[in-house]
Amino acid sequence: MKKTHKYDMGVIGNCAFMAYVDTTASVRWLCWPRFDSSFIFGDLLDDEKGGEFSVKPTAKIQKTKQYYVTNTNILVTEVYTEDGDFKVTDFAPRFEQDDRYYKPLMMIRKIEPLRGTPSVKVVCNPVGEYGEMKPEKSQGSNHIRFLGYDQQMRLTTNIPLSYVMDEHPFVLGGAVYTVLTYGVPLEAAIEQTAETFYTKTKRYWRNWVKSTSISFFHQDKLIRSSLILKIHQYEDTGAIIASGTTSLPEYHKSTRNWDYRYCWMRDTYYTLNAFNNIGHFEEVEAYFKYIENVTKQEKDRYQPLYTITAQKKITEIEMPLKGYLGENKPVRIGNDAYTHIQNDVYGQVLTSLLPLYADKRFTNKYRMHTKQLVEHTLQKIADTMEEKDAGLWEFRDRPGHYCYTFLFHWAGASAAYKMAQYFDDVKMADKALKIKERAADMIEKCYDEETGVYMQAAGSKDMDASCLQLITMNYLDPNSERARRHLKGMEKELMAQDGLFYRYRHVDDFGAPETTFLICAYWYIEALACVGRVKEAIDYFDKVSSYANHVGLLSEDVDSEDGSQWGNFPQTYSHVGLMNAAYRISKKLDLPNFL
């Protein structure tokens, strides 16, 4: 039976790691030392092998409350019991230090009473190798060592160590702290260091938000989405992952369980748009460098996805774990989609590089090595124009001539033409225009005269929400009757309640989809705004955004019947969709942006 639910977790992070904390202050997911490493806490996927990091009251929980400290990625969980109340403040330190960002593999928890004298038990039992390794515990002077990892892991605390080692309850008479570290341990004073790091981290996030350029339209949602998107960037390389989790199913027992802890090239255009729209260029520059490192190693094809360190091989294997809710197998590590042919990636790269040349805020140093890259990528569009691929949705057994692929061929060639003008290269400009015309011809092969809709692929009668981008990317004139008819046809076939949208309705490798895909709903909202249906766009924006969880985080998929959240979480694609849709609406409303 399908379980109606929303993910009852908040996420903290510092651009080196993320941790997922539920509404009872239990850490459900934390991978160290990288986003794509084994979990050290992973009971999200297995309550026996996943380890535990919790703060449990001895009295029965009456209610809980969870929220972020305003304009930060600092998470607070309040727990109310019959004997007293307490709160847990969780954060990953991040602040400027010595002209660099200090972002250690360190999770700090402050546990303090709110009312009465609550009795709690702190449990810290990390694991390794996806639950196959249980480290040996060793007690130090004011810390517990966990032996068996590549680097030292410690829990440093001012709680009596015997209580933590023995998992024994104690009365919470005042604030106590736990500092979990991987690598360099905490040797300084616990309380003073934790409070100093808290103050500096709060100041960093609030200053980051202050430098964000957003309009008055749903500022709270935009701020939270921006903060969440930020911590999905692995700052060491600039890569931005699709999600911090693996194998959270697209719907219950669907077997559509994928590892999303990698960087998808298909997300590039939308993600960079989102950062550009909020005026944050540090993240954009880091992402440009990552893309350059990825593409310079490729002499032939670009893969659909790469690891956060730009590695190509991402072998997909199934792990002996129970799965989400104890019954969603398989649990997959790695993602075989890296082997797929997905030809829209070339247009994604070119459209992503365009701001380097079109936006005067970027200096020449970012343009030094890209002409050869532009020429190579443009040629790949020409070479793959007639080739079938797996499409945006990475169909594993459905190759086709997909409209979305041709759209990015068209957009990529358009970008290359503009960059050719910067290079003052007439030959490249002429080549780009010819490729753009070829791509437009291929797009038109997907048009269905009877319905007035551009179909998923040439010769197909299936509709696909990705074709909404024909409007938002200006292939179709938003003011034209053709655009309006195309949009209405897609609404009729793919829209669910409240503006939620299915990617497609046809059967694929795993059957027919049962849940809607949130990014598609935000694409629809953008398309509405483009064609002038702004009031409807605002109404649906409100409705679609209400499917966030209690702290404003969006999943990948939503069950339109009961509002359940499904898929990997939080999904950067969904938050990017929200940000870009809000930007599109605010421009239509002519709302002022401010710094």
From TrEMBL:
Domain GH15-like: 218-583
One annotated GO biological process: carbohydrate metabolic process
GO MF entries: hydrolase activity, hydrolyzing O-glycosyl compounds
Database matches in Gene3D superfamilies: 1.50.10.10
Keywords: Hydrolase
Domain Trehalase-like N-terminal intervals: 10-156
Pfam families: Glyco_hydro_15, TREH_N
InterPro entries xrefs: 6-hairpin_glycosidase_sf (IPR008928), 6hp_glycosidase-like_sf (IPR012341), GH15-like (IPR011613), Trehalase-like_N (IPR045582)
Entry keyword annotation includes Amino-acid biosynthesis: no
Name of the featured protein: Glycoside hydrolase family 15 protein
Organism: Flammeovirga agarivorans
